[in-house]
Amino acid sequence: MDLAYVWFLIVGFLFVGYFVLDGFDFGVGMSLPFIGKDNTDRRVLINTIGPVWDLNETWLIVAGAALFAAFPIWYGTLFSGFYLALLVILLALIVRGVSFEYRHQGKGEQWTNWFDWMIVVGSALPALLWGVAFANIIQGVPIDETGNYAGTFFTLLNPYGLLGGLTTLMLFFTHGVIFVTLKTDGELKARAKALVTRSTGITVAVAASFLLWTAWQHRDIDHLPVLLGLSAAAAVFLIAAWVLNMVGREGWAFTTMALTIVFAVGAILAALYPNVMPSSIDPAYSLTIENASSTEYTLTVMTWIALFSLPLVMAYQGWTYWVFRKRVTRDSIPVGASH
């Protein structure tokens, strides 16, 4: 297999890892006003992701770096055309990170509530805009003969793009609330479990609509059975997550929800293949895996680096999750403390 296609899969894998890991971070952040009845509850929720949220975001950095090195033309067109959406995502991530650190400074209830809402917004905006961005990529965007994006930010806010954004928003929200059931106990866990039951129904409806629309748009591609198979697998795992949550199998529910995101992103990549950014102006202007990739020498060097570095990164992250595997409870929050 040509190394360009290998790196298309590697970049896809890195974004899958980012969406699975930072996805539940976003979900936990968005859940604060729904299941956090007081400051102690909200502190428990934040502490469930406290040791790992910044580590999860490194997947985005690695994915962006791999995209820049392996597909510089794709990277250039994407970041120049989607710069406003990506800037909003970056600012939201900064605001969220700052809020995690500053909400505990003990300057009063209003101060804490303000930063809590910044966490909610800083989690919801990336969850929405990542879906909008990827939906537009697979639908096709106005790329001219020079390879430049010819649209505006508002071009991205079309019905299909917004449905894609709502899909990732609900997938990440449900993923995060399931994570809360896995990491907490008592009344907080019970509220999270009940919320999963309600949110999964909305998630199924939204995600099914998006994947069916995607399949219809790409009904003429040769590998349509692959797209349909991946979409069906995502639907099955999403329903399985709902059932497992109902019967109290939180670990398996979290695993199947993660697999839902894996197969959903796989369906998106299948719809995109062999393009990386289709042009809605003229298919001849589309960026493909072959015409947007780096040289063979560059990809060869990158492949050797990835063979050594990726297993180490994954092993370290797995070890981190093992160390912080225990549940977080209200009793673990010191009485009278502000964080």
Automatic annotation (TrEMBL):
<feature type="transmembrane region" description="Helical">
    <location>
        <begin position="114"/>
        <end position="139"/>
    </location>
</feature>
<feature type="transmembrane region" description="Helical">
    <location>
        <begin position="194"/>
        <end position="214"/>
    </location>
</feature>
<keyword id="KW-0479">Metal-binding</keyword>
<keyword id="KW-0813">Transport</keyword>
<keyword id="KW-0812">Transmembrane</keyword>
<keyword id="KW-0349">Heme</keyword>
<feature type="transmembrane region" description="Helical">
    <location>
        <begin position="159"/>
        <end position="182"/>
    </location>
</feature>
<dbReference type="GO" id="GO:0019646">
    <property type="term" value="P:aerobic electron transport chain"/>
</dbReference>
<dbReference type="GO" id="GO:0005886">
    <property type="term" value="C:plasma membrane"/>
</dbReference>
<dbReference type="GO" id="GO:0009055">
    <property type="term" value="F:electron transfer activity"/>
</dbReference>
<keyword id="KW-0249">Electron transport</keyword>
<protein>
    <submittedName>
        <fullName>Electron transport complex bd cytochrome b subunit</fullName>
        <ecNumber>1.10.3.10</ecNumber>
    </submittedName>
</protein>
<feature type="transmembrane region" description="Helical">
    <location>
        <begin position="81"/>
        <end position="102"/>
    </location>
</feature>
<comment type="similarity">
    <text>Belongs to the cytochrome ubiquinol oxidase subunit 2 family.</text>
</comment>
<feature type="transmembrane region" description="Helical">
    <location>
        <begin position="6"/>
        <end position="35"/>
    </location>
</feature>
<feature type="transmembrane region" description="Helical">
    <location>
        <begin position="226"/>
        <end position="244"/>
    </location>
</feature>
<keyword id="KW-1133">Transmembrane helix</keyword>
<dbReference type="GO" id="GO:0070069">
    <property type="term" value="C:cytochrome complex"/>
</dbReference>
<keyword id="KW-0472">Membrane</keyword>
<keyword id="KW-1003">Cell membrane</keyword>
<keyword id="KW-0408">Iron</keyword>
<dbReference type="GO" id="GO:0016682">
    <property type="term" value="F:oxidoreductase activity, acting on diphenols and related substances as donors, oxygen as acceptor"/>
</dbReference>
<dbReference type="GO" id="GO:0046872">
    <property type="term" value="F:metal ion binding"/>
</dbReference>
<feature type="transmembrane region" description="Helical">
    <location>
        <begin position="251"/>
        <end position="273"/>
    </location>
</feature>
<dbReference type="InterPro" id="IPR003317">
    <property type="entry name" value="Cyt-d_oxidase_su2"/>
</dbReference>
<dbReference type="Pfam" id="PF02322">
    <property type="entry name" value="Cyt_bd_oxida_II"/>
</dbReference>
<keyword id="KW-0560">Oxidoreductase</keyword>
<feature type="transmembrane region" description="Helical">
    <location>
        <begin position="301"/>
        <end position="324"/>
    </location>
</feature>
